[in-house]
Write a structure and sequence with these properties.
Radius of gyration: 27 Å
CATH class of the largest domain: Mainly Alpha
Shape: elongated
CATH superfamily of the largest domain: Mitochondrial carrier domain
Structural class: mainly alpha
Order of helices and strands: EEHHHHEHHEHHHHHHHHHHHHHHH
Number of helices: 21
Largest sheet: 2 strands, antiparallel
């Protein structure tokens, strides 16, 4: 096939013509034989093409050579052929060994030359994620080949081309930046360690889009699982005295306050998402700067975990009074408080400012074992999956959700006794111990070790739907906001 465009003749083989025709048809959503901005926007969403705000507009301007408002097949092919020539040059810049492959060592070198240091783990993650996205785009079938004992992945020219052919620039810096932030969400790590943002993302506002998408996911997830959360708190505080079980607990809540009472305390639980996320993000960024010997240095996973844990402690310290109010509101009887401000006023009037930090110590102590075990198990499960599926792409969404759910459950098992003691101290039950050690002693004497896990069943039940809802909502909101995956 020969494509005539102005003074340029583009010759294509049958295979090249078929591939470009299939891609054009995928982008031509309304099937009218030409692509406009609406087609391109819808196609990028349907194909889940990694992109950034303004990507579609820039892409369209490159292809629409005659500024007619639409892209014809001739324009598409002409630009794509030239674009692929430039992509080939960028690939050769990375392929220092001239073996037709890009491996982790070459990728680490390129990032280092750009002033950004990444370790082998992130390099392999980027290589693996590229192949996964190529598979997801249905442009071609991509398989992962494990090439050495260190599980170093390699990317071929064809895979490089298929990933970046819909990227509007061939500038190596821009392409690599897009690649690094175009990977699928890591459910386990994203729950533990705040997202990393480059200076460009901080300046352009990409960071607040991430936080907004995460906040929306948290709001819907917490609201959907609020009845289970309220039941857990009631079982923790009153389960032993009144021999409350799950079924009887639900009946009691409905009988006492109607179906709306199932969501008591959810308002403040949702409100505290914004200040907690913002504080954690700001503190995390400051801690990272202090930990870096070189501004261009990238932190490893354990350094990020340590920074994230410290940021979590600072954020929890600041918003902890809201945690106490949430517990009081969850446990309130009908008519006890008229709202959040009334609850805060009565709590302060009873015990002063110290009442807003009841249970603070077990809460802070519980952050480290929960986050540490959660992270360790999540990474272990992903490693086991990779070992048993050496010829497959990155773990898919279902595998990642399963890993995230399992690791979160194990983290809760380790930290739950501290969470239970914290809740009982926050509730300030009359006649109960007033210190962490005293509360542990009382529970063990009256209920034995099993008492430390009272209320854990509804907590386990809510983990899977909470993680799944968060993921689905985050995906939809981040697409609406033009957020790239991190």
């Amino acid at each position: 096939m020969v494509i005539h465009h102005h003074c340029t003749d583009v010759k294509l083989s049958e295979k090249e013509e078929r591939e470009l025709s299939d891609l054009f048809n995928q982008l031509d959503v309304n099937r009218d034989g030409k692509i406009d901005v609406k087609d391109l926007t819808a196609a990028f969403r349907n194909l889940d093409v990694p992109h950034y705000p303004g990507h579609v507009k820039v892409f369209f301007e490159h292809y629409d050579s005659d500024r007619s408002g639409h892209i014809t097949f001739t324009e598409f092919v002409t630009y794509m052929v030239e674009h692929e020539k430039q992509l080939k040059l960028s690939f050769q810049q990375l392929d220092h060994k001239n073996d037709g492959m890009i491996d982790a060592d070459e990728l680490m070198t390129v990032f280092s030359n750009m002033g950004v240091n990444i370790d082998r783990t992130e390099a392999n993650r980027l290589l693996s994620s590229l192949r996964f996205v190529v598979k997801r785009l249905h442009i071609r079938t991509a398989q992962i080949n494990w090439l050495d004992k260190e599980n170093t992945l390699q990317v071929t020219w064809e895979e490089w081309r298929d990933y970046f052919r819909l990227h509007p620039t061939t500038d190596l810096m821009g392409m690599v930046h897009n690649w690094r932030h175009g990977t699928i969400i890591d459910v386990g790590e994203s729950l533990l360690v705040p997202d990393d943002f480059t200076e460009q993302e901080l300046k352009t506002g990409m960071w607040w889009r991430h936080l907004l998408a995460g906040g929306a996911a948290g709001i819907l997830s917490r609201t959907c699982t609020a009845p289970l959360d309220r039941l857990k708190v009631i079982l923790q505080v009153h389960g032993n005295k009144h021999d409350i079980k799950m079924a009887s607990g639900f009946r009691h809540m409905v009988q006492e306050g109607g179906y709306r009472s199932l969501w008591r305390g959810n308002g403040i639980n949702v409100i505290k998402i914004a200040p907690e996320s913002a504080l954690k993000f700001m503190v995390y960024e400051q801690i990272k700067r202090l930990m870096k010997a070189d501004p261009s240095q990238e932190l490893g996973i354990m350094q990020r975990f340590a920074a994230g844990s410290l940021a979590g402690v600072c954020a929890q310290t600041a918003i902890y009074p809201m945690e106490v109010l949430k517990t009081r509101l969850v446990l309130r009887k009908t008519g006890q408080y008229s709202g959040i401000s009334d609850c805060a006023h009565k709590v302060y009037a009873a015990d002063g400012i110290k009442s807003f930090y009841r249970g603070y110590l077990p809460n802070i102590i519980g952050i480290i074992p929960y986050a540490g075990i959660d992270l360790a198990i999540y990474e272990t499960l992903k490693g086991l999956y990779t070992e048993r599926h050496p010829t497959n792409e990155d773990p898919g969404v279902l595998v990642q959700l399963a890993c995230g759910t399992t690791s979160s459950t194990c983290g809760q098992l380790a930290s739950y006794p501290l969470a239970l003691v914290r809740t009982k101290l926050q509730a300030k039950v009359e006649g109960a111990a007033d210190t962490m050690v005293g509360m542990f002693r009382t529970i063990l004497e009256n209920e034995g070790p099993r008492g430390l896990y009272r209320g854990i069943t509804p907590n386990f039940i809510k983990v899977a739907p909470a993680v799944s809802i968060s993921y689905v909502v985050y995906e939809h909101v981040r697409k609406l906001l033009g957020v790239e995956m991190t």
